Structures are given as structure tokens and as C-alpha cells.
Amino acid sequence: MNTQKTGLAPKHQRLILVVVALLVLVAAGMLAAWGLRSQADYFYLPEDIAKNPPEPGRAIRLGGMVQQGSIRTLSDGVTIAFRVTGREGNAIPVTYRGIVPDLFVEGSGVIANGRLGTNGTFEAETLLAKHDENYTPRELEGLSDQAMHEVLEESAAGTP
Amino acid sequence: MIAEIGLAALWLAAGLCALQFIAGVLGVREAGADGAVHPVSALARPAAVVQGLLLLVAFACLLRVFAVTDLSVSLVADNSHVDKPFIYRLAAAWGNHEGSMLLWVTILGLAGGLVALFERRMDDRFMKAVLAAQAFIALGFLAFLLFSSNPFARLNPPADFGAGLNPLLQDIGLAFHPPTLYLGYVGLSVAFSFVVAGLVTRQAGPELARVMRPWVLAAWVALTLGIAAGSYWAYYELGWGGWWFWDPVENASLMPWLAATALLHSVSVLAARDALRTWTIMLGVVAFSMSMVGTFLVRSGILTSVHAFAVDPERGAFILGLLAIYVGGGFGLFALRAGALAEGKRFALVSREGALVFNNVMLSGILAVVLLGTLYPLAAEALGTRVSIGPPYYNPVSAIFAVPMLLVLLVGPLLRWKRDSLSRIAVPLAIVGALLAASVTVLLLFTDAGVLPILGLAIAVALALASWLPLRGRKLKRVPLALWGSMLAHFGVAVSLAGMASETAFSIERLVAVEAGESVAVGPYQVTLQEVDPVAGPNWTALEGRLAITGGGVDTVLRPQARYFTDPPQSTSESALLTRWDGQFYAILGDAAGEGRWQLRLWWKPFVTLIWYGALLIALGGLLSIFGHLRASARSRRIREEVARRRAEKALL
User: Fold this and answer.
1) I need a labelling partner for B114 at 20 to 30 A (CA). Which of B31, B514, B545, B649 fits?
2) Is the preceding peptide bond at B524 cis, omega within 30 degrees of 0?
3) What does pTM read for this prediction?
4) Tell me, what CATH number does A52's domain have?
5) Same domain, A18 and A95
6) Band of the pLDDT at B385, cuts 50, 70, 90?
7) A28 contacts in B (CB within 8 Å)?
8) Rg over CA atoms, chain A
9) Range of the domain at A23
10) Across-strand partners of A55?
11) Is residue B81 assigned to a domain?
12) Counted domains in chain B
């Protein structure tokens, strides 16, 4: 066997390599955990915002249905305002500067990434609508168009 | 009839696959005892070759039923339409769950056939183990196809028209994106089979690394191209102007790429220096695991996006089962046998090996960050919270590992194997350091870019030079092809990085509502909306904007469209791009904004194209390396044979 005059035995070198790799992986895991907790965008339905509003300025995702008759384009031509409703009829006002996705229509599902402003208006940075007949954003499962229409009709009937 | 032939070919391939597995296992077991090989084991190689051919037949049958739009095949009826242009009818064959799984298996079968036909460098017992492992993987996926994703199922009565293909997928990008990615996944599965054989036969030396290397490199080249193609597709087809979204589906292809990058570097350490034996074996298992995780994420429908064709829990469970068997089996075998592997050679901290270990560890760190970010929303959802993870997490956290790795990349290739000192390379070190510092200073003084773009640009500038420094002190004519490959790939990293950083730091975006005849300034250009007209294509109608672009030496017209498809009913934005040597102008036509105005979203993206040119250079570098290594290995085999022949002649005399 080659006795070690210069440095470490192979076995020790392998051990050190494993320890270093493990340390880096643990560091990566801890960094990831910290990053995930601080940077995750939590998903809210309109009723969640009404019950337990997120702090203004924090990035969140808002999902729900675009309320019938609520979409209007502001005078600059590129900002649109609309209202998003959830299961219980709370409506959150949303503004969005940009070109709306192709299937963004009233009475259909939408997910908005953005922040809640101090005035209670949700400022959207991106909008996701239903891509096609087979695709509904996973957050909107259980919020079928049919069910939403019923909810909306009930809430419309309830308010004078 | 064609569909039945295809199905029969699939069943026959599955039978041969089982035979190949049995023959391979017998070959491994019997040869150990008294040197006598079980006669059945001789069938392993022919079985692999014929199986590859049969799968090719099955895939050709699938192409045929799509080409003639045979609406009595339910897959065709669900995913194609008689009115589609021919090339998209063909592409529709793998633009769906069943067809893409058949493509996966076909590529796997062809790779197995190639290994069986041409790989003669290792001993017979090792090759039997490789073929048994290949067959074991293929068997699982064939079972998945035959029992839960039959692409040839008939529809009775036949459909009248066919449902069509998601128009987002009706694009030439689709024709190339999935096949290249699958080539990458499959290449990693071959590398995995070699690793398994290495563990079973306890051979984990440089020979293993040399036979693995072409497959790892080929997989890595294919993944690089596949990711770049997917990124460019998302860039121009989705109309969001971004080139990377950290979407789980993108991550599913990035994770195998990260593992393959680490693997190909550690394989070259093993081949050149016989060090990092266990580590390389483990990376081989990890890389294949990542391609299984990628397949699972995309194919199971667990993520809902344009890629998730399969919204079917049974299939998800099936793929999850396969994932558990292969990943669990791979790591289990590794845990059992890793301790029995002989130790590799030692090296000093400051050495080529040391730099490559650093690269490997940092890549593993990035891999962990991306994997956790991708799985976290799924885990959180299982616990009842819905979250999404985006760039604010991925960018900074992965940069913590990527930046040190890139800094080491500046000097790593200059170091000698085994032991070196930084003072020996003091001059190039000083030059690269000075270039880096100067770039940072200039960018800080003259731009208001963020921290990451500045670091990215400065590293790109330094790396563009440093990647060629290994040429120092070498005769140009005697530089091996593989070294040209590695330098070119590192230069490609610099080019791509420059594109990413420049796009992030210097993009100019304008969002406006304009009437016909009105102009806006975007970066160096003046853009005038001339008019908006209706136009029609083969299976769509569209509103087309005519934009006159002037200034900066340009005078041209761009035509962005908003398209409406009828089968299935859907609309898409077709971006219009003006490509210049120093960047791209990107235009999207939006909706009517009232008062005769139209919405326009316009970007000037300086040097954005470098991202994809860089990726092409990286892939080209990989190809050069493959050819270099194959040529070198063919030459050394010729020399060995020559020596053996002379020796035999001498013995006769």
C-alpha cells in the first residue's frame, strides 16, 4: 500500500468530498426553504381577501370569475378595470395595464398576479385566463362556469 | 389495418424486451460461475436490435394514420383535423400524450439497438448487464403504453372531422421541441444502464467513463437544444416577451440538464484521471432520476398547463409507480454496491479535478433549489395551501450557486490535473480578473442595471476571453477536437449569459393605444400603425396590424396578428419580430381600445438573440467533443489491434 506522505488517504478524501457536498446541499435546502417562505405567492379567492386581507404590497395571486358587465377600458386605452368574484359574491376591483389574454371574457375564470393596493384595488401585473376548452387554471377547479353563474345569479337576486 | 400493424409491432417489441431482459440477466449470472455462458444470453443483442426496428415500425404506423387523418383511430380524432396543413398533421402525432410516449419508447428502443450493435469496448458480461438494464426500463414504458396509453385504440363509429390541435401547438417549434427533449431523456437512460452495469459487475473505472461519455454528451446536447427551442417557442408564441418563466414544465427539462452538465464533467474526470468514481456513479443515477421526474411532471397531468394533455389520475399513478421502481431501484443498488467500489485517485484542492468538483457541487446546489421550488407548490397544495413560486425565488437563490460556479469556470480549465498552484497561472488570472473588475466598474458607472445583470454581463465579458485561454502555449494544429469542443461550449455560456443579462437590464417596453397613422418611439425606432385589416389562413382568420418601423437604419413593415381558430375554437397572438444584429424588435397587436384606437405592446430587446445563439454554440461544442472522443477511441483501438497483431506475428516466428 502506498503510505501517505503527502496529504490524505483516498478514503479520507472521499469522506471530505461527501461532507462538503452534503453541506452545500443542506445550505441549498435551507436557502430554498427561506426563499420559498418569503417569496411564495399565496393564492387568494375574493372571499379570502375580504375575510383576511393580505398586507398591501405583498405579491399574491387572485383567482375567481370576471363579474358580468364589469370590464371597462380606461381613457388611456391600455388600462382595464374589472371586478373578480368568488364563491360567496365578494367582488374585488382589479386594474390591469396591458393586453388581456385571448380568452379573458366576462363570466369566465381568471388568475391575476399582483398586489393589493392601499385603496383595496388589486393591481394586476399578469393575467391568466382559460387557455382552451380542456384547460382551467388549477386554482379554479371546483369553480365551474355553471356553479359561478348560479352564485352570481343568487347574489344578483339578493341585492336590490 | 395500419393501426393494427402498429399495435402488433408494439406487442412484439414488448415480448422481445422481456426476452432481452431475461437473456441479459442470465448472461450476468452464468458468466460469473465457471466461465460458461448460458446459450439464451446470446439473444440479448439481437433482441435489442429487432426491438428497436419494431418500435420504429410502430411509430411509422402512427405517422401514417396521422398523415392520412384516419378518423377511426381515436387518437387522431381527438388531436387532428382534416383541414390541418400536412406538416402539422404529422407533428400532431407526437403533440399529444399517447403519441409522445410512443416517441419516447421508440427513441429508447433505437438507442438500445445502437448500443447492442456498436458498443464493443466493454466485456461481454458488462454488456449483458447494460442490455438487461435497458430492457428493464423499456419494459416499464411499454407496459405503460400498452395498458394505459394505447395510441392505436379504434373509435367506433369513426369521427366526422376530428377535434383539432391546440393552435398554440400548431407551430414549427413543436415539431422539434419534444423529440429533442426525449432524445436527451433517453440518452440519460442509456448512461444510467451503463452505471447500473458498472455497479453490478463492479467496474467503475475510466473504461466505464469512456463508454458512457458519448451518451451523456449526446443527451446533454439534445437537452440543450430542446430547452433552447422551448424557450424560443415560448418567447415568440405566447406573446409575453419573456424567454424563461420558471414554469414547472420548463423546470422539468432544466433539472435533467443541470444533472447532465454535472455528470459530463465528472465523467471526464473519471475518464482522464480515474478519480470521482462513486460520485460519477451517483450522478448517473441522479441524472436519470431527474429525467424520470421530468417525465412524471409533464406526462402525469399533475401540473396543469398547455403541456398537460393527460388529465387522468390512473396514468399519473402508473408513471409514479415507474418512477418509484427506477429511482428507488437505482439508489438502492447504489447504496448496496457503492461501498464495494474501489477507491479512485487522489487530487489536490487546487487542480482541474478540484475545480470540476466545485462545478459539480454548485450545479447540485442549483438542482436542489430548482427541484424544491418545483415540488413545493405540489406539497403545499397537498396540505391545503395554494402557492406559486416564481422568479423572485428562483433568480436570487439559484444565483447564489451559479455566480461562484461561473467565477471558477473562468480559471478552472487553465488548471493542471492532480496538483497545481495559482501562482503558475498568475498572468491569465490577473488578465481575467482585471477584465472582470473593469466591466463591473463600467457597468456601474454608465448604466442603472440591477446587481444580477451587472454580474452576468461582467462574467460574460471575462468568460468570452477566458474560455479560449487554454489555447495558451499550445500548438494550434495539435489542439484535440474535444478541447475545441469544451472551449466552444464555455464560450457559448458567455454568449448566452450576455444575452440574458442584456435583455434583463436594457429592454425597453411600450404599451400604447394608437389610432391608424399615429407614431410612437421605442428605443432606436419610430413605429407607426398604418392600418388594421382582416386576413385569413388555412384554418384561421385574423386581424393583422401593419406597423411601419423606421429609424436606426431600418425601414420596414411588421405584421403582428390576433388569430382566431375554429377547430378547436381559440385565439392566439402572433407576435411580429424584427431581428437585427444588436437585438430584436417585438410587436404584439392587442384589442380595439375604443375611439378607433388599437392596443400595441412593443419591445426593443438589445442582444436578446444571443441567448439562443449561445445555446447553439454550447450544443455545437458538445458535438465536437463527441466526435473528438469517438475518433480518439477509434484510433487507440486501431493501435491496440496493430500491437496485438504484431505480437502474434512475432510469436509465430
Assistant:
1) B31
2) no
3) 0.90
4) 2.40.50.140
5) no
6) confident
7) 364-366, 368-369, 401
8) 25
9) 6-39
10) none
11) yes
12) 2
